[in-house]
């Protein structure tokens, strides 16, 4: 489990991002804004400064960006799905924002984050769908701006709402999406409790949590702080992580072993069906600090010709921190006797895919050092 809720605070594992010069590559940014009456002053600042925010995103992304806009009070409203290069549209919509006030201080912030992270369509208490999807090769960020505790759609705050917020953070982490939390403190709502929730969102996803009233400047600062790391799995012994690579051969860093100690990769292994064995994945770290993400494991009977993702089945996933020098990750697996291929994908908010994944595995492996594969025949034990 990535994080646990204790009262109104989260205990989180991944480190927070550290500032550096903006060089974000392609960007997908979802602005998730509280539009209730207590946010009027903060929203006025954002309305006045939205052009600076969108210009900063445009510059940091080199012009390759999409901005989504979701607002909430007791309900969620999708104002804009992801659209390429939509600075002008966002600059036009944000100054018009207003909304009904909630009858109580808790608001549907957790549900709005779920909408953004999970790209949810129209549902009860939500108008508009956010279904364009996040790009695998983009730096992905949700920017949550609120002064209230999460309250779901019932305008009440309790343990279930903290659990919902935690689940939204977990879903973001699993997808390589960072949540940046911007908190304009409101004395009428417990600012310490709200601050703890906001810090939990950010800390559990590698994002940044900030407090203050100059909302436009704060959003610009967090969304263009793109701490980049580069963890990878080699495609060949001489692979140093270049993207795109020269080959898409079988990885020397994927091995199927009878125990939790690394064994040399082999083309064939023996194991009775259902026997617990272990897939070992050696990860390298090319720099940029500790890389935090999720290592996902898949198998297919179609090998290098298997269409992605239709002909691959996920069989494991584990949150991982990869320090300088690298790390070996061990995933348990109930063996299946077959001639099959294993695929690993590294999903990280600070280390997105270099190129958008297509249906061809060879292209994905060659283009992205986050993706590697190996073919292994599993034979039954003799006798």
From TrEMBL:
Species of the source: Actinophytocola xinjiangensis
CDD domains attached to this UniProt entry: vWFA
Signal peptide: 1-21
InterPro entries: VWF_A, vWFA_dom_sf
UniProt keyword DNA damage, yes or no: no
Record domain VWFA: where: 28-182
Gene3D superfamilies in the record: von Willebrand factor, type A domain
Top-level division of the source organism's lineage: Bacteria
Keywords: Signal
Name of protein: VWFA domain-containing protein
PROSITE patterns (UniProt xref): VWFA (PS50234)
């Amino acid at each position: 489990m990535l994080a646990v809720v204790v009262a109104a605070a989260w205990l989180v594992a991944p480190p927070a991002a550290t500032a550096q010069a903006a060089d974000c590559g392609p960007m997908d940014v979802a602005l998730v804004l509280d539009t209730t009456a207590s946010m009027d002053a903060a929203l006025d600042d954002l309305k006045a400064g939205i052009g600076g925010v969108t210009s900063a995103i445009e510059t940091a992304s080199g012009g390759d960006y999409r901005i989504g806009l979701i607002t909430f009070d007791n309900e969620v409203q999708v104002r804009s799905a992801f659209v390429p290069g939509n600075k002008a549209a966002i600059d036009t919509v944000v100054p018009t924002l207003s909304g009904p006030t909630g009858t109580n201080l808790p608001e549907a912030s957790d549900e709005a984050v779920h909408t953004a992270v999970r790209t949810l369509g129209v549902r009860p208490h939500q108008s508009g769908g956010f279904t364009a999807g996040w790009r695998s090769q983009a730096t992905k960020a949700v920017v949550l701006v609120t002064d209230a505790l999460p309250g779901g759609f019932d305008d009440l705050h309790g343990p279930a709402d903290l659990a919902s917020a935690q689940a939204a953070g977990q879903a973001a982490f699993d997808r390589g999406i960072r949540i940046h939390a911007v908190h304009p403190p409101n004395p009428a709502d417990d600012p310490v409790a709200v601050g703890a929730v906001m810090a939990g969102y950010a800390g559990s996803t590698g994002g940044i949590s900030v407090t203050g009233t100059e909302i436009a400047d704060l959003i610009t600062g967090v969304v263009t702080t793109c701490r980049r790391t580069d963890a990878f799995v080699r495609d060949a012994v001489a692979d140093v992580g270049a993207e795109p690579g020269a080959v898409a051969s079988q990885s020397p860093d994927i091995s199927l072993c009878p125990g939790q100690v690394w064994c040399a990769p082999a083309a064939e292994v023996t194991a009775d069906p259902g026997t617990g064995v272990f897939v070992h994945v050696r990860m390298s770290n090319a720099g940029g600090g500790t890389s935090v993400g999720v290592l996902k494991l898949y198998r297919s009977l179609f090998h290098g010709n298997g269409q992605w993702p239709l002909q691959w089945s996920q069989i494991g996933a584990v949150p991982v921190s990869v320090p300088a020098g690298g790390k070996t990750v061990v995933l348990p697996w109930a063996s299946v006797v077959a001639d099959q291929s294993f695929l690993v994908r590294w999903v990280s908010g600070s280390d997105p895919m270099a190129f958008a994944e297509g249906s061809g595995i060879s292209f994905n492996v060659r283009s992205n050092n986050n993706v590697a594969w190996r073919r292994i025949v599993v034979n039954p034990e003799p006798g």
